[in-house]
Design brief:
This protein is α/β, with parallel strands linked by helices. Helix content is about 35%, strand content about 10%. Helix 1 (about 15-30) packs across helix 5 (about 150-170) and helix 3 (about 85-100) crosses helix 6 (about 190-200).
Length: about 210
Amino acid sequence: MPFSYACFISYRHSSPLEVRFAERLHRALDTELPARIPLKAYRDDRGLRSGDFIDPAIGRALYESVCLVLVYTRQYFDLEKTYCAREYYAMQQLENERLRHLSGSNGPHGLIIPIILNSEECVPAVVRQRKYYDFHKYGLWRREIFNDSVYGPIIREIAKDVANRYDEFKRCGVDVCSDAPAYELPDENAVRPWLIQIIEAGIRPQLPLRTGGQ
């Protein structure tokens, strides 16, 4: 089974800022991606409330996505509402498995692309170890992201990176989505020990891989 989505947008629904930014990010990516690959981004726009069951379709959409684009805010990794952590953890596992098929590619290109929306000083090591994009100065009063003189070029760079990963998987000739019908997100019990480690590790002030949005 081939990929169904270019990327899965993972974000908290805890504030209007996060939701509206994710909407704009989705529109921006869907403006850039189709010119490069025949896929668009996926975003669950329904949100979850306490006690809700996670729709199996969300896990399948993540599984059938080339990359995960996460919108990081201070609330992203949360012990009470773990669904974002489950999405991140799931793609991290898929990344470890899938990158083995891309051994001939140049460099350690990951499948998780972080966007820092705010609280840049609180970025945990698990996110900070990756190249990430700094959007903390982007305000909703600005133009749509794809038309913004500062952030539009960043979206084009992200779209290019996602398209490159897609092309690499296409060239490798391995169907990495073959188990899509049976795939489920890791449950909360599987993710919680890992999540506790992230939270207990604390936040370091050094942010060496910051890029974009200056």
